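Lab manual, section 2.4: Encoding a predicted structure.

Procedure: take the sequence of the chain (168 residues), apply the prediction step described in section 2.3, and record the output as structure tokens. A sample record is shown.
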Amino acid sequence: MGAPDAPALAGIHHLKLPVGDLTRSRTWYHSRLGYAVEAEFVEQGRLMGYSLAHPNGGPPLGLRLDPARARAAAGFDYFAIGVPSKAAMDELAGRLTALGETHAGVHRASFGWILPLLHDPDGHEVRFYTTEHHTDPPAAGVTAITDPRESAEAAEAAEAAAQNAAQA
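Recorded output:
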């Protein structure tokens, strides 16, 4: 499926977020998601960043001390971290809830399931999306998804109604 005019790429090397407090963010990403410090970046005698690694498949994550950019970026979801299955997503949601984190719960999305509206200490939205799909995209061509949120909510409501009818 390669194109002769496209450069060779190899996935995502790492994600990087600006943060207002390195220690606070390092602690949050470790306690909530299991990330551990792999490298520290010290510039002119000052700790300016961390490279974090995940023990179970999460993407490498960089935290860069930059309070002004962290404030400006608050609320935006820059990326979605992959989760292998809906069962693993449900487990993650339970873990986050037990740790006192608010989020929107696990919901049906266009192709898989999503756990949105978790926010790190700087207000960045950290989203999770399953790599397991409930619906396979077509093998060829561009998939058009009209009103993705509304379509997913309608499909989720229909599933819930069918489950309730089956239990009655």
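Check your result against the sample. The radius of gyration is 19 Å.
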